């Protein structure tokens, strides 16, 4: 089906009300889960081909998370779909009020390349669980995964789930179609373009964007464990993770020790020769490889395999390019700091990040950082783990995005909250009508 035909077809299918029922939502989720499990091998191969992801890493960061999300939706959907009663105001004596979470209709999901399976399917699961139809546009930069998604999801009728393959041009054309909702994951630059297009038809959007997520290590942190957990979060997928720590500040008394522990943790995770380690991923393409080498010419690299070894970049100039752009690769700028105030000022004066990481045992300090800074999420004494629980919403703020999803929050995001009021016929206050001589007095009593 041509992309321009899909939206009217999906809208007319949606108008038939089938996708709104609990039975249909559960059945679609069951079918989806079955198809994904049946084709797990195909996806593992695609992720290996696109990004050099090892099977274990791909299962942990992409496939397992998606299974978990489907299970979570299936377990809770019935409860979430129930109408919610609200209280009645004094002015509404005898009336009943409630809210209904209703699907928007036809939803467009645009996905990036770095977790091309999970970041395409987790929003899709939320949209389906909420009773919508979906058009999915995977990233052209992870072509094998995009093809596998196309092939597997073509088992659904296109009126319910359609996958459209293409590049930036096609994405722009898609955003111009009369969708009821657009869910975009990608860069802030493209997020702005998508929002501009969506604004032309007042299409609501969720933007899951990127940015520079800071990491703070205080002197009372458990340095060895902190280093291991930072190494895990920074170098998984070769640093191409939207919530990876982008740069680090360590308190000056422990700076050297933390740096040494980090170097040791990297060796423990990926060995002396990470470029030869099959558990260590590669950079997605030559353009990104060259961009990253531009930040760190001294990093060990392999132009054939497009791998760049984990690299600690000590104290680069705060005005240098590496500290202006999101790094999105295996390079970690590292700075010592004396006063936490300086670090917090630095963070507060920059665009709001997607994540902030804090390693400390000091609860007062933890409270201070939480109070003073704004970021999509915060993870204390670990990295990335805040994203892998369906109980926490995931999303950005300011430059790192708007809106959030995962678990119940996905259900909220892809549902419109409709307010309903039912008035009684047995009661009709005369004072609200213009001829009532008491109107002014009673209203002034009611709205004090
Ligand atoms: P991208 O913005 O280049 O591409 C995302 C999608 O937009 C792709 O499907 C692509 O085809 C499309 N696109 C690209 N250029 C376009 C244009 N000019 N007009 C319309 N559509 C266009 O992002 P990417 O390189 O795939 O992903 C990396 C970025 O995504 C990083 O900034 C990263 O931080 C961010 N990201 C965010 C999250 C999150 O959950 N917040 C997750 C992963 C990645």
TrEMBL record:
The keyword NAD applies. SUPFAM superfamilies: ALDH-like. GO terms for cellular component: cytoplasm. The keyword Transmembrane does not apply. GO terms for biological process: aldehyde metabolic process. It comes from the Bacteria. Keywords: NAD, Oxidoreductase. It holds the Pfam family Aldedh. GO terms for molecular function: aldehyde dehydrogenase (NAD+) activity. Residues 13-420 form the Aldehyde dehydrogenase domain. The active site is at 208, 242. Belongs to the aldehyde dehydrogenase family. This is Aldehyde dehydrogenase. It comes from Listeria kieliensis. The lineage of its organism: Bacteria, Bacillati, Bacillota, Bacilli, Bacillales.
């Amino acid at each position: 089906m041509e992309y321009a035909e899909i939206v009217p077809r999906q809208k007319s299918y949606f108008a038939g009300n089938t996708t709104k029922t609990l039975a249909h939502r559960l059945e679609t989720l069951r079918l989806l889960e079955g198809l994904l499990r049946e084709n797990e091998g195909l996806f593992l191969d695609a992720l290996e081909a696109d990004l050099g992801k090892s099977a274990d890493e791909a299962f942990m960061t992409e496939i397992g998370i998606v299974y978990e999300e489907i299970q979570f939706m299936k377990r809770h959907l019935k409860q979430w779909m129930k109408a919610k009663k609200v209280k009645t105001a004094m002015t509404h004596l005898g009336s009943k009020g409630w809210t209904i979470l209703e699907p928007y209709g036809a939803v467009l999901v645009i996905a990036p390349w770095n977790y091309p399976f999970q970041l395409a399917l987790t929003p899709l699961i939320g949209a389906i669980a909420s009773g919508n139809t979906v058009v999915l546009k995977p990233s052209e930069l992870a072509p094998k995964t995009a093809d596998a998604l196309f092939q597997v999801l073509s088992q659904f009728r296109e009126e319910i789930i359609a996958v459209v393959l293409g590049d930036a041009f096609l994405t722009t054309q898609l955003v111009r179609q009369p969708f009821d909702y657009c869910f975009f994951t990608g860069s802030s630059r493209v997020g702005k373009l998508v929002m501009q297009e969506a604004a032309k038809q007042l299409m609501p959007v969720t933007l899951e964007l990127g940015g520079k997520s800071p990491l703070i290590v205080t002197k009372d942190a458990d340095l060895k464990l902190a280093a291991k957990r930072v190494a895990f979060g920074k170098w998984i997928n070769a640093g191409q993770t939207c919530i990876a720590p982008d740069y680090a500040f360590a308190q000056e008394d422990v700076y050297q020790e933390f740096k040494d522990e980090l170097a040791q943790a990297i060796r423990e995770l990926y060995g002396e020769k990470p470029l030869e380690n099959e558990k260590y991923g590669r950079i997605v393409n030559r353009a990104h490889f060259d961009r990253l080498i531009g930040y760190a010419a001294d990093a060990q690299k392999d132009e054939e395999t497009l791998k760049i070894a984990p690299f600690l970049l000590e104290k680069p100039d705060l005005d240098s390019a590496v500290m202006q752009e999101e790094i999105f690769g295996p390079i970690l700028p590292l700075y010592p700091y004396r006063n936490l105030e300086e670090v917090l000022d630095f963070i507060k004066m920059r665009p709001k990040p997607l994540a902030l990481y804090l390693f400390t045992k000091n609860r007062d300090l933890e409270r201070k950082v939480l109070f003073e800074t704004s970021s999509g999420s915060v993870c204390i004494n670990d990295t990335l783990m805040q994203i892998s629980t369906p109980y926490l919403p995931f999303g950005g703020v300011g430059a790192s995005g708007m809106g959030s999803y995962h678990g119940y929050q996905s259900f909220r995001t892809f549902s419109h909250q409709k307010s309903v009021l039912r008035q009684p016929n047995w009661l009709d206050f005369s004072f609200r009508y213009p001829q009532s001589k008491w109107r002014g007095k009673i209203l002034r009593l009611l709205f004090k």
